[in-house]
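F.,

This is the one I mentioned.
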């Protein structure tokens, strides 16, 4: 005697409750860590030893910081860092922002004295970032052989 009417069918529904739980945990983790990740200054670090600045670039924007913390805004790379226009940190964002808005593709470089505190360099990079600079290159002297 076979009972054909009482045959068990396979269940075709998927229980999604455990997946929702995992998704909510991941959402909480991402929401907690996102503010920590977005803080900071974006810097494009070189993957190899630095090369000389190409001569093809038309007058890059160079911010120079002397040992005493004095800021100079230069349009074009010059050997003497004090040959540009001296600015305060408060005026830097406005003046650099005007130049960057006028020429959005202008390369922005930072030349800082090696004896400066790292915090001062990061502060200037933050001001340049808020002025609209997509990336900031660091100008260094070539190592002596």
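My design for it:
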């Amino acid at each position: 005697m076979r009972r054909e009417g009482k045959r068990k069918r396979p269940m075709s529904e998927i229980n999604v409750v455990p997946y929702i739980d995992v998704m909510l945990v991941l959402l909480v983790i991402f929401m907690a860590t996102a503010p920590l990740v977005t803080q900071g200054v974006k810097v494009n670090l070189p993957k190899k030893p630095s090369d000389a600045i190409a001569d093809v670039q038309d007058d890059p924007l160079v911010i120079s910081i002397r040992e005493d913390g004095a800021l100079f805004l230069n349009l074009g790379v010059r050997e003497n860092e004090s040959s540009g226009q001296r600015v305060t940190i408060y005026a830097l964002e406005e003046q650099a922002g005007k130049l960057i808005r006028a020429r959005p593709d202008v390369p922005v470089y930072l030349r800082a004295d090696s004896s400066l505190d790292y915090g001062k360099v990061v502060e200037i990079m933050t001001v340049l970032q808020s002025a609209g600079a997509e990336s900031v290159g660091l100008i260094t002297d070539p190592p002596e052989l």
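Residues 61-138 form a domain with the Nucleotidyltransferase; domain 5 fold (CATH 3.30.420.270).

Talk soon.
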